[in-house]
TrEMBL record:
UvrD-like helicase ATP-binding domain location: 207-590
GO CC terms, sorted: cytosol
Residues that coordinate or bind ATP: G228, T229, A230, G231, S232, G233, K234, T235
Pfam families, alphabetized: UvrD-helicase, UvrD_C_2
Gene3D superfamilies (alphabetical): 1.10.10.160, P-loop containing nucleotide triphosphate hydrolases
A GO term for molecular function: hydrolase activity
UniProt lineage: Bacteria, Bacillati, Bacillota, Clostridia, Eubacteriales
Protein name (Swiss-Prot/TrEMBL): AAA family ATPase
Gene Ontology biological process terms in this record: recombinational repair
InterPro entries given in the database record: DExx_box_DNA_helicase_dom_sf, DNA_helicase_UvrD/REP, P-loop_NTPase, UvrD-like_ATP-bd, UvrD-like_helicase_C
Originating organism: Oceanirhabdus seepicola
Domain of life: Bacteria
Entry keyword annotation includes Nucleotide-binding: yes
Keywords from the UniProt entry: ATP-binding, Helicase, Hydrolase, Nucleotide-binding
Length: 743
């Protein structure tokens, strides 16, 4: 059949679907109105009839039935409301693809239309459109024409794909379609990728690639690790995977409350916050490791350095030896060796450091310190230290209670003899007794508590303890300096960002934790940013949850990360079913930008770019800062003129950002993001490279990228991140010599 004829047929089909959707929307809205009236009516009646209920206990049951009514109407209301939302999401573009499927052993060929959600004919129960997450939809992403199969609840279904078609539908109108016999959706992907970036992360259901689809739909593995190059779609995949896991709730036993995303910072959290609602799911909880640590320390009246401050130190400190030492300390305090030392520290604290005193009451010995210690160490049910101490404290006070009562009785007799106190015998006697017990009570309470911060301090304030605990454990050559450096910081009351993970670890072990007991699946994005110890913390925080861990070792910033990190993650999580996959194709940046990013890395790591050619990045030498300011302004203006809607000027440090902003803010429309809590609201911004992680912009200007500013391994990775933020345009400005990585 020639194209025009099919186009008419397809337009008819689309019209039919739009009519169904319109009908559903109309009846849904009517129903919603009725339900709204019903809820208002039920509330009104309850209000009118139940006001006097407190005096009339017989009518309490009426109250219950009113509440039941309201509850029922509310949940009805929610179901209808959600349906309406779904149809509204579908009406502009009910589907984007179709394939024709002939199941083995069947005569009939089924037309399978795929869209953002399911649509069913309510009378015939025919599925008019399948949700992209439905089992059968996997065929669309996984196969080309010919033999194909998918896993259904009934088992493996095999068959033949006789047609594969994609549609360009806009505002409920079919523009065109095309049949693909080869790679799925290259043409549409090309079009999607050539568009401007958006403020919030976009959904990609039309163009999910085969290897990405496998990751999204994996439910076999309790630990799924993905190493993906910058722009390969890790975050997109993570979000679509969550939508998939929620859709498959029956099999995965997951609902919104059971999933958590560990995200790198608040800017990023906001960036991904629209995607799940757009896919028809509620947002899931997000946790930023740093915020969790800072809050925890605040609760204990302690200050801890932020990640940004740590990064700024590494970038600004002039004394090279201090930077080297700090980097070593960061590496060591996140290492497997340090985990072992912390485990030993807890045991050692219990056995050798934690001390008890004899407990007396009214000159009578109640418990000896030896007895208390033996009770403390008797831990058959593996109860955390502070819970055990609390239990002991309760027991001690129970024991003291009758003795004190007797003391009060005795006091009462004496007080009763004093004429002035005759009317306040009881109160006065209790006061005397309390006064006498106060010091003892305080001592007991103090003895029966433990602070994870004190436990941590023991490690560095007492070198002998460190040495004993570190016996037979591999230590860095600089360990003496690391201990000394840490001791100095702790004595000054400074906890550094690298102390956060050990501190949280100790807190969880010492105090126990059930804050996240609902969590069954954890998604860790920017996985390279976390140390083995942080993974150990995740394991302790989230119990036996499953994990999706996505990262790119080349984007690590505070330390050099190798592929071996993933082996450590596997060892720590210790799951029966696990898989590690790679995504090497970058979809974000143009071919030429990716070529430059590969040059920076030197090793190519098998990175391939999607073939989108947009011209070479501009690399320009400037005479001085003034000249560079001028170029920044003109590059931003060029981006505006070319119709781009987002751009970033990426500087090395926060300070550079602030100074540049002050100099150019009156000449060009630009904002600054130099504090972590800010949200990226679109448009053109100046920000430090390390904050731009995970984000993307139509155009990027890398500021002051000379060799003076970028010359070590950390700088190499910063440049890699900076370059790979750009979709379409890239300008590199430098003074003096160009950085060694781009030459
Ligand atoms: N299959 C796809 N179809 C359309 N666009 C895609 C696809 N995969 C990725 N993209 C686009 O590529 C860009 C990069 O995706 P994403 O941010 O998820 O990558 P990433 O691997 O997390 O990157 P980074 O590590 O640099 O943060 C996004 O604009 C995303 O929409």
């Amino acid at each position: 059949m020639e194209y025009e004829k099919i186009l008419i047929e397809e337009k008819d089909y689309l019209k039919g679907i739009i009519d169904v959707l319109k009908g559903e929307l109309k009846s849904g809205e009517q129903l919603l109105n009725e339900r709204t009236k019903k809820v208002i009516q039920a509330r009104k009646e309850m209000w009118e009839n139940v006001v006097h209920i407190y005096e009339d206990t017989d009518r309490l049951s009426d109250f219950g039935s009113y509440l039941e009514d309201i509850d029922g109407s509310n949940s009805d209301y929610n179901v209808i409301f959600k349906k309406i939302q779904k149809y509204n999401r579908m009406i502009n573009k009910p589907y984007f693809g179709r394939f024709d499927f002939k199941e083995q052993g069947e005569e009939e060929i089924e037309k399978i239309y795929i869209g953002i959600a399911n649509l069913m004919d309510e009378e015939t129960y025919d599925v008019l459109v399948y949700d992209w997450r439905a089992p059968i939809a996997s065929v669309f992403y996984q196969y080309e024409l010919g033999e194909c199969a998918y896993n259904s609840p009934k088992g493996l279904i095999e068959g033949d794909m006789t047609l594969k078609r994609q549609y360009k539908i806009k505002d409920s109108e079919l523009d065109y379609f095309f049949d693909s016999s080869l790679k799925i959706n290259d043409e549409i992907l090309q079009e999607v990728l050539s568009k401007n970036s958006s403020i919030k992360m976009k959904q990609i259901i039309e163009t999910i690639q085969k290897d990405q689809d496998r990751i999204i739909r994996d439910i076999e593995n309790e630990l799924l690790i993905v190493q993906g190059t910058a722009g390969s779609g890790k975050t997109s995949i993570a979000m679509h995977r969550i939508a998939y896991l929620l859709y498959q709730g029956y099999h995965t036993k997951l609902n919104t409350q059971n999933i958590i995303i560990v995200s790198p910072n608040t800017v990023f959290s906001k960036y991904i916050s629209d995607i799940l609602p757009g896919l028809g799911e509620e947002n899931v909880e997000q946790i930023v490791f740093e915020d969790y640590a800072i809050d925890m320390m605040k609760e204990n009246d302690c200050y801890v350095e932020s990640r940004v401050q740590q990064m700024e130190f590494l970038l600004n400190e002039r004394e090279k030896n201090l930077i080297k030492l700090r980097k070593k300390a960061i590496e060591f305090k996140g290492s497997k060796s340090f985990i072992k030392i912390l485990e030993r520290l807890i045991k050692c604290y219990e056995r050798n450091i934690k001390e008890f005193n004899d407990i007396y009451c009214d000159n009578k010995m109640i418990f000896t310190k030896e007895y208390l210690k033996s009770q403390f160490l008797n831990n058959k049910i593996n109860m955390p230290m502070s819970k055990r101490l609390k239990r002991m404290e309760r027991r001690i006070f129970r024991e003291l209670h009758p003795i004190r009562r007797r003391r009060v009785e005795k006091a009462e007799k004496i007080v009763a003899e004093i004429p002035d106190h005759i009317f306040v015998v009881k109160q006065y006697s209790r006061l005397i007794s309390l006064k006498r017990s106060k010091a003892n009570n305080d001592m007991i309470r103090k003895m029966m508590s433990v602070s994870f911060i004190d436990v941590y301090k023991e490690l560095f304030l007492n070198k002998r303890i460190f040495k004993t605990l570190a016996k037979n454990i591999e230590l860095p050559d600089e360990i003496e300096e690391i201990i000394e450096f840490s001791k100095n910081q702790i004595e000054k009351g400074n906890f550094l960002y690298e102390d956060c993970a050990p501190l949280i670890y100790l807190k969880l072990k010492v105090d126990g934790n059930d804050e996240f007991k609902e969590i069954k699946h954890v998604v860790v994005d920017e996985a390279q940013d976390y140390s083995p110890l942080q993974y150990e913390v995740f394991k302790t925080l989230f119990g036996n949850a499953g994990y999706t861990v996505l990262g790119d070792i080349n984007q690590s910033m505070d330390k050099k990360v190798e592929m071996s990190l993933y082996d450590e993650v596997k060892n720590i999580m210790n799951k029966k079913n696990m898989a590690q996959l790679r995504m090497n194709k970058s979809y974000r940046s143009s071919f030429e930008i990716i070529a430059l990013s590969k040059k920076i890395l030197q090793k190519s790591y098998g990175i391939v770019s999607f073939e989108r050619y947009e011209g070479k990045p501009m690399i320009k030498q400037c005479i001085d800062f003034k000249d560079m300011d001028y170029d920044v302004i003109s590059e931003l203006q060029k981006l505006y003129r070319q119709g781009f809607t987002s751009g970033a000027v990426l500087c090395k440090t926060k300070d550079e950002c602030k100074k540049l902003y002050e100099r150019i803010k009156d000449s060009v429309e630009v904002e600054i993001i130099a504090e972590d809590e800010k949200e990226y609201m679109g448009g053109f911004v100046i920000m430090p490279v390390y904050m731009s992680k995970g984000l993307e912009f139509d155009g990027v200007v890398i500021y002051d990228a000379g060799d003076e500013n970028y010359n070590n391994e950390l700088h190499r990775r910063l440049l890699y991140v900076a370059v790979t933020r750009a979709l379409h345009r890239l300008a590199v400005l430098f003074r003096g010599e160009l950085n060694r990585f781009m030459q």
